[in-house]
Specification:
CATH class: Alpha Beta
Largest sheet: 6 strands, mixed
Oligomer: single chain
Helix content: 10-25%
Distance between the termini: 35 Å
Number of domains: 1
Radius of gyration: 16 Å
Shape: globular
CATH topology: Metallo-beta-lactamase, Chain A
Length: about 200
């Protein structure tokens, strides 16, 4: 399994391609879709799924990629239409092929990606966990030494704290976290950093 990180768009969104030798899954895209498409072409990869951690406009720039690759798009139903996107001039709902739900497994060959519902930053925020190699894609729920914003429409601080405490910090300490912005971290680091501060 390989993880290729791209930092794209006006808010420097982390976008991740998880792939084996033939197929790939994309997690989020903040812009410059042609960079993703070029990587797929150069590495002769078929994009199977696009998983959206949440519905904010800086994570859902996927129309060209979907059209070109015919990849199936998954997102939680609560984030399909979001007031914050209307404020940003992005008023069209995302057209999804399937809804993400708690404990759902998305397969890429032998790679099994588990969906964790982690609301708080947005009503339908999700994180994606690969147990086999202790990897978590946390979207904008948890960053290195920081938590996701809750002062925007749909945000809820108490829900965010509950998601982090019960879903994310409960994972094995060696789990590596790939967030929606900024650099990578680990469960062990975040537990040490945040448990006393927030909990």
């Amino acid at each position: 399994m390989k993880i290729q990180k791209f930092v794209l768009g006006p808010i420097q969104t982390n976008c991740y391609l998880i792939h084996n030798a033939k197929e790939a899954i994309l997690i989020d895209c903040g812009g410059h879709e042609e960079i993703i498409l070029k990587y797929l072409e150069n590495n002769k990869l078929k994009l199977k799924y696009i998983l959206l951690s949440h519905g904010h406009f800086d994570h859902i720039v996927i129309n060209k990629i979907k059209e070109k690759t015919k990849a199936k798009v998954g997102m939680h139903e609560r984030d399909r239409i979001m007031p914050v996107n209307i404020l940003a001039g992005k008023i069209k709902p995302i057209i999804t092929d399937f809804e993400l739900k708690e404990n759902q497994i998305v397969n890429l060959g032998s790679i099994k990606i588990k969906v964790l519902e982690t609301p708080g930053h947005s009503p339908g925020s999700c994180s994606f966990y690969i147990e086999s190699n202790k990897t978590l894609f946390s979207g904008d729920t948890l960053f290195k030494s920081a938590i996701g914003r809750t002062d925007i429409p749909g945000g809820n601080y108490d829900r965010l704290m509950k998601s982090i405490k019960e879903k994310i910090l409960a994972l094995p300490p060696e789990t590596k976290i790939y967030p929606g912005h900024g650099s990578e971290t680990t469960i062990a680091y975040e537990k040490q950093r945040f448990t006393q501060r927030f909990f």
